[in-house]
Specification:
two-stranded antiparallel ribbon, 412 residues, alpha/beta, single chain
Length: 412
């Protein structure tokens, strides 16, 4: 196993590098990595006839780079919202789609300026009053109602663009802050006072979002990817075996971050979540989920007795974490147990000679530094991959010991 240390801290290797890139910055979500890194890996490892797989689609970065280059790609996720977003970002929009989007967006702008008086459905998001003012909530509700009521008369692609614009406006007008790794709330003093009332704020945000989406949706898509709703631990139930020549992905990090929690405003508004229990259940199904009832289920989880993680220090690390928190020790154990199942499935769908590239970050639990990149390397070797290499990408902006890596390997 080789390790190459090239320690950098470049914004172009983070989501910040995606903001000015056509469709890549459509929504600001936590699970996002750099378009530049994907392009670099494709240049080095994927020929023109490559078939690329991303088993953790996230925001669709790998799929979109492939779509713009005309590279065949398949991607999937267990989260239906992320599947929708990846499909929407990688769709080839025609003139009719964009014209319909523009006309419908102008009609919604009038709704913002003159919202009806009657109250409409708002999502059952916990303590929703912390997110938006009452007036903004009602305006957003009327916007979404107008989008949904036009769904049957508009091309489906244009409806999806309207929903992206709605999501941008909704989060822009919320009290959410992205100043930290995990979504939090702004302080009251940070709230904008540039406009006289909420409707002016919403209208300005809507028009800005619509203009940005309309401009970037013109970007050419040479080959649309196939996007699937699937579980990364059971790839062979959805994907053909011995088929993929290059895998570029970034799985959830074992850092206690719940992606369902981070995505909850989008998922509640668009109807992917109905209540807190559903959110916890979906997080339990995802690898690394820790929100709501997922935490109590992790606390009760036990692995199969004859299944061991193939890393010499692993169980010592678990005991060290257990001294501080038995639940977090089980969380780490289950994360790599699930990833081991994933790696075994991955080996079956990758073709001989195919390469895999996993963007991962190490973690720290109390005083225990978890060498995630080395554990992934061990899992790849156990699954049957060869020539495993670790490259340090950058210093992350959180704790000083935390870095991001690419772990690569090849199927013999």
């Amino acid at each position: 196993m080789a390790t190459q240390n090239t320690i950098t801290r470049h914004d172009h290797l983070t989501f910040k590098g995606n903001l000015k890139q056509t469709r890549y910055g459509w929504l600001r979500l936590t699970p996002a990595y750099s378009v530049h890194l994907v392009a670099e890996l494709l240049d080095k490892y994927a020929s023109t006839n490559a078939v690329v797989l991303d088993p953790f689609c996230g925001t669709g970065t790998t799929a979109l780079v492939c779509a713009e280059r005309g590279v065949e790609c398949e991607t999937g996720d267990i989260n239906p919202f992320l599947v929708w977003l990846s499909e929407t970002k990688t769709h080839a929009y025609d003139t009719a789609d964009l014209d319909a989007f523009g006309v419908a967006a102008a009609a919604i702008a009038k709704v913002i300026q003159h919202p009806p008086a009657e109250p409409l459905w708002i999502p059952p998001l916990h303590q929703i009053e912390k997110w938006w003012s009452h007036q903004t909530l009602q305006t957003l509700a009327h916007m979404l109602y107008r989008i949904n009521s036009q769904a049957e008369s508009l091309p489906g692609a244009s409806v999806n663009l309207l929903k992206v614009a709605f999501c941008r406006t909704m989060i822009d007008q919320s009290n959410a802050s992205f100043a930290h790794q995990s979504m939090s709330f702004k302080k009251s003093a940070q709230m904008s006072l540039l406009f006289e009332d909420d409707s002016d704020l919403v209208l300005a945000s809507w028009e800005k979002s619509v203009a940005a989406i309309a401009a970037s949706a013109h970007s050419p898509i040479v080959r649309q990817p196939r996007v699937l709703l699937c579980d990364a631990r059971s790839l062979t139930t959805a994907l053909p075996t011995n088929s993929y020549s290059c895998v570029i992905t970034s799985p959830p990090y074992p850092n206690r971050m719940s992606y369902i929690r981070e995505l909850r405003p989008y998922m509640y508004w668009l109807g992917y979540l109905r209540d807190g229990r559903a959110a916890g259940e979906l997080d339990w199904q995802a690898i690394g989920g820790t929100w709501g009832i997922a935490t109590s289920k992790v606390a009760k989880w036990t692995p199969e007795a004859d299944v061991a993680i193939p890393f010499d220090e692993f169980y010592t690390l678990l005991m060290d974490i257990n001294r501080h928190s038995p639940v977090l020790s089980r969380y780490v154990h289950k994360y790599f147990y699930d990833m081991m199942r994933h790696c075994n499935q991955l080996f079956q769908v990758v073709k001989s000679g195919g390469t895999i590239h996993y963007i991962v970050g190490n973690s720290k639990f109390f005083d225990v530094l978890l060498p995630v990149e080395r554990i992934f390397a061990a899992l790849f070797e156990l699954a049957g991959f060869e020539d495993v290499r670790i490259r340090t990408l950058r210093k992350r902006t959180s704790k000083r010991e935390l870095f991001e890596y690419v772990v690569s390997a090849q199927k013999p």
